[in-house]
Amino acid sequence: MSVRIEVVGPDGLRPYLADLRRLEAAIKYPIGDGSDHFTIDHGDTYDAFFSGLGAAMFMIAVDGDELVGVFAGIERTARCDGATVKTVYGADFKLAERVRGGSLSRRMIWKGFLMGMSPQFLRRWRVAYVTAMRGAHGDVMRSVRGFHAARLARPGARLAVYFVEPERLAALRVDGAPPPPPPPGMDLSPDPASRPPGLASTAGRKDLRLQSTGAPWPLAHLPLGPSSWTPSHAAYLQRAGAALVAEKLPGPACFALDERLADHIGWLAAAGIRPGAVCTIYTFGLPGAPKPSPWVHLATSEI
Hints:
three-stranded antiparallel sheet, single chain, eleven-stranded mixed sheet, alpha+beta
């Protein structure tokens, strides 16, 4: 039986929730350049994480009665040099192992591309982007070959992703830390869901589990972008770390920096804090989209 591809809203996922959880449990994401991995569980409804980011739709691939693929598309906004930019975030592209390596991924991505380029949707976005975590052999884009819509996207930024114990952040001496980078930059998370002093959690909507231990891996995300780093990124990290210690919250603190912010990354390295993963943001812009920016911010609570 051939695999059919459909585009559905959150309610259209309901018949396939068990399939989605099995699919997620079988897919591992690398940290430490492959020294360990984690799996993701988006919870009982699956869509809550994505719907919390914006208006979400889902492309699903179904073989008979079994869901074997999913791809989320979320309408969002970004901020670039004070201007608001309409975006589409393509997230959580997953295929069951038995259908990988064939034509299904190409079919799904082309369908999504043609849908986004239709007159119905063109006015609703200027920039589309996806994220890909790097493993020991590169990221998912290494498998893109031939006439493939994914080849139209270009690397917009590489993010160094950090996982740091809160005690280490709380102990930072922030004198001499570099100031926030000047505009223009592209903030893909201009208004992240957070609470003072800039903390976020995805618990119940996106839970992680480490492969090495089988234990839950709760992350405390630090999602604020450069416009909120006062007076410096290091000061933000120190305040957040102190709050996490005071509240005795579990898990490492997680945040990301554009690798082009070499002064910030170098300052953290001098303090003994180094990234544990790399995430590439691939972008595709329509005419009128902002020009490439010297830095890009995306909250790790939204990756």
